[in-house]
Amino acid sequence: MLPENPLRKAREKYLPILPSILQQIDNVEWVKEEKVSLENEEIRSLFPLTFGQPILRLQKNKSNKNRLLRVGVVFSGGQAAGGHNVITGLLDALILLNPESRLFGFLEGPEGILKGKYKELTKELVQSYRNQGGFDLIGSGRTKLETSEHLASALNTVELMQLDGLVIVGGDDSNTNAAILSEHFMSKNSQTVVIGVPKTIDGDLKNTYVATSFGFDTACKIFSEAIGNIARDCLSAKKYYHFIKLMGRSASHIALECGLATHPNMVLIAEEIAESKKTLQQITNQIADLVCERAEMGKNFGVILIPEGLIEFIPEIGILIQELNHLLADSSIDNKEIVSRLTEDSQKSFISLPEKIQQQLLLNRDPHGNVQVSFIETEKLLIETVTQELKRRLKDEKYRGAFSALHHFLGYEGRAGFPSNFDCNYCYALGYTAALLITHKATGYMCCITGLTQNPIDWQILGIPLTCLMNLEWRKGKKKPVIKKALVDLCSKSFNFYKQYRNEWKLNDHYLYPGPIQFFGEKQLTDTTSYSLSIDV
Ligand code: FBP
To answer: Is the CB of 248 under 6 A from ligand 1?
Structure first.
């Protein structure tokens, strides 16, 4: 037998801190908090049954008798640390409410629902997954449930399994799936309610109610450890510029958070670039200016953070990507014809890009119609454009320095690591919340926990109607209802905090070295929340 990993075993024993309201789950009830305003008529017409439901708040009540429940759970989309704790929280709560209740995990994401592929999740089976990273207990997938055949297959599966509830653990697109299924099941008088759980490392599933999605905290801590280590190597060797691209899809939340945790010389915030309509050449100049200023100080090294979604926010490339999305979604257009079908301006933008980036922009979209930004090597593109710009400046005698750049991409290594204590506690409580919403027969709700910067004991529990989080967006060439993505708010306290310090960090090397996530020891080491969360409250 292979030797056991001592950290894995030790983490299995960690007992997540439960909010006090969840500590006696027999003695709680959901109360209607407020009706969400019915402003969006288009969304209402698409979700006539589930639109306009009230927000639910969990409060203490006298003891009540709980029914036996059969519940299905599915992971949808990219991995995010803490997912296994949603399952253990859900299972523990269901069993506490009624020991005869049963939980089933759909395999490999939403596809498992369509094909009726699942396994029963028992206490024995989930034990070794407590407080562990990854989604490997049941796997995940990105299948979008949209056709009438999909809806019929999903209904068939939940009816055959006699499920009382289906819990969808996912990001904006997956919670959109949850809203669609909930409406469909209700329209067919199904007894199965559908509940969403906010997951994504990207941090873009947040709104007035949901302060953060799970997985963001752990991913940013893992990336920040690596960035801090690179910064220290950089400061020691003093010979390289490190261009570090960070995962996070469209939004720059991860780049901002890691910037706050490590104080690099520059963090590009895509949302700011879009607002000031900076072209690729202007972004190149901005980086080249930093290199020149630092060279004047005798510093030919530095650390620059780049959000992976940056490319979509550069105005001319954003337009190009939108045009490509429309053309690629049209199956009647041959791939070879696509470039010639672009508008004149977009053709120019396309041709100006290195061949490799051109190919990456033409790659297949994900099942939700999103361009796969993690495959576009923006960090290499910027190294190339900055190198060219510096060569020009060298020739014109406007720069005297040495520029040697290295590229990094931090992404997949941050999604499945051991969850931080914050994500362990948060996910376990989200699992409990899902069980309680199902007991209440609430459908089309997202589990929501507020007060996340406080001690977990004081966290408050809400159910938020999914339809009130939706808007209409263009996907695969069509207008579709989707849960609204939250981009970095340029008026937020966290962004303004960064703005206040960035000039200082640019020239002086005030790097921070956060080190690895801590699981043992003082609470201020083990139980911290993300910088952005604590600054923005
Ligand atoms: P979710 O939105 O599904 O949580 O996924 C987030 C993410 O990690 C993005 O940051 C990244 O762009 C994408 O997934 C990568 O997708 P894949 O895992 O399919 O390569």
So the answer is: yes
